[in-house]
Design brief:
two-stranded antiparallel sheet; 10 helices; 11 strands; 287 residues
């Protein structure tokens, strides 16, 4: 059994569907059916059975899945090592971050980076979920936090400060209300677990919050629609002069901004070109 066979089994097991596996592998469903039948004939063993509309591994095939995952891990590790030795600043890199960080910190930097390194193509993956750098969901992550995960290489790019913002129109409409009655817009998980989210939990009553979201960009849009006031990154709010800082003291609410990559890619020419350019633009020290 070769890696192609193991990869096919692994993909079907993860998707639960021959059709979905075919789409992911870039082949048609007939090809997947033909190949899996051939594998089962070769090993004289049934790999899958259909349960409530999904294909699941038979009990005896679990060991094959474990082996397939182990082989996949080794192949991905080998790919990282090979790419890590590529010193020429060209090729493709993928960068994951949140929509708000991209908007206030990364968009212009990426544009300038492309002008300096036209041989490097940048893929931007915007997500509030933390994509895995170990599994190569992305090459570089621009994330908030207080430290670098033990299995990654990280460079501190600076800090993100926060304030409470609203529009002039909204503040006029709520001027007769007390601080315990004014309308708020709130963050939701995973942002609720962060320092700004904890400040919100400790200082804003639940009944005052009329909208929650896991995106500061969405929160900013709602604030601009005069729906309420909300905690926002100061640099994000500064992009629109209709927003005013309403005066809450959030000096203690500060989050570190980190650029992270996998150790195997730390010597990759294109990855380090991006990290160095990012630190240059943000005034960070990556030495």
């Amino acid at each position: 059994m070769n890696w192609d066979s193991l990869k096919l089994i692994l993909t079907i097991a993860r998707t639960g569907s021959f059709a979905a596996a075919a789409r992911q592998l870039g082949v048609d469903r007939t090809t997947v059916l033909r190949k899996i039948k051939q594998i089962q004939r070769d090993i004289d063993f049934e790999l899958f059975r259909k349960v409530r509309g999904e294909y699941v591994l038979t009990a005896g095939a679990e060991k094959i899945l474990e082996t397939a995952e182990l082989v996949e891990s080794h192949i991905q590790s080998l790919e990282r090592v090979i790419e890590g030795r590529e010193l020429r600043p060209q090729g493709r890199i993928s960068v994951t971050t949140t929509d708000s960080i991209y908007q206030f910190a990364l968009a212009e930097i990426v544009a300038s980076f492309r002008r300096r390194h036209p041989g490097i193509t940048v893929d931007i993956l915007l997500s509030s979920q933390r994509l895995s750098l170990t599994r190569r969901d992305a090459d570089i992550a621009l994330r908030t936090g207080s430290h670098v995960p033990a299995h990654l290489v990280g460079y501190r790019m600076g800090d993100i400060d926060f304030g409470v913002f609203a529009t002039q129109e909204f503040m006029k409409s709520e001027s007769s209300k007390s601080s315990s009655e004014v309308t708020w817009l709130g963050v939701d998980e995973p942002l609720l677990s962060s320092a700004p989210g904890q400040w919100q939990t400790n200082n804003v009553n639940d009944h005052q919050i009329v909208l929650r979201t896991n995106s500061y960009v969405a929160l900013k849009t709602a604030v601009l629609a005069d729906m309420g006031m909300a905690i926002l990154p100061i640099r994000l709010a500064a992009l629109d002069d209709r927003l005013i800082n309403v005066g809450y003291d959030l000096s203690s609410v500060r989050i570190g901004l980190w650029c992270l990559t996998h150790p195997d890619l730390a010597t990759s020419g294109r990855v380090m070109a991006f990290v160095d350019f990012l630190s240059e633009q943000m005034g960070a020290d990556t030495s």
